[in-house]
Structure formats: structure tokens, C-alpha cells
Amino acid sequence: MPLGLSTRHSARHFPLEPCIIRIAMLGGRSNEPRSNEPRSNEQWIAQYAGSHQHPVNRICHTLGIPAILVSIVLFVASIFLHWVWVYALVLFLLGWTLQFIGHAFERKEPEFFHDWRFLFVGVRWWWAKIHGRA
Question: ∠ at Cα 133 (127, 134), nearest 5°?
Fold first, then answer.
């Protein structure tokens, strides 16, 4: 058996598809065809905005992204102010819950499922949105 798997744990119990999905996420596979030129900030934001058309999804992301950002700051602050971690955790979970609720309305999976770099594009989209550019 490959990889030290016993006969009890055959390949049918460990499908290859989840591995391929994880590798694709790490490799930066996106829905767009590959090109030799890097994408501009505007192209990243345009692709992200294309996956966030439903009004409920846009509202959820407009609220959820800053909640996640504030939670990260609070997690760092909790090094010095130990009681802050509770607020950080609540904001982090609330922010991600809003993200996935929004995508349920959109009926489209998050872009970062295909390319991990979209985790950072969401922040750029939010910044452009609050400045009237997205």
C-alpha cells in the first residue's frame, strides 16, 4: 500500500480531489486564463467585484471585512491586554459568518477558494468601495 496505508484504509476512503483542491489554492489558480503579465490592482478588484454582485453579499462584505481587520488588530493587542482576545474572537467569527452568508445569497463560492490571494483583494475591494471606486 502506498504511503503506509493499511488495507483497511484504501484509496476509496481518501479521495484525491480534496488534495487537488488544496494544491490549486496554494498555487494561485484563478478563474481567469493565465497571462505572463501580472494583474493590476484594478484588475484584481474588478474580478473580486464580479463575484460580489448581490446587494446582500455586498453589504455582508462591507461589514464583515472591517470586522475581520479589527479582530486582527485586537488579537495583536491581546498580547498586552489579555481580556481583549474575547472581543477579537467574536469580531473574527462575526466577520467570517457575514462573508459566508453573503456568498449564500450570491450562490457563488468565495474567490479565495480558487486563489488564496483573494483574501487580500477583499481588503482592497472594501477600501475602494468606501472611497467610491468599486
Answer: 80
| Contacts of 87 by beta carbon, 8 Å cutoff, 6+ apart | 71, 74
Query: In the 8-state DSSP scheme, what is residue 131?
Result: T
- pLDDT tens digits, residue range 31-44? 554 555 788 888 98
Whether 98 shows a pLDDT value over 70: the answer reads yes
Q: Are 86 and 26 in contact (CB under 8 A)?
A: no
104, 105, 102: which is closest to 122 by C-alpha? 102
CB 31 within 8 A of CB 51: no
Q: Find, among 54, 67, 46, the residue nearest to 129 by Cα.
A: 46
In degrees rounded to 5, what are phi and psi of residue 45? -65, -40
Q: What is the pLDDT of residue 25?
A: 46
Phi, psi for residue 80 in degrees, rounded to 5: -100, -35
Contact, 61 vs 126, CB < 8 A?
Answer: yes
Q: Indicate the pTM of the whole model.
A: 0.69
The 8-class DSSP code of residue 3 comes to G
> Is pLDDT at 13 greater than 90 in this prediction?
no
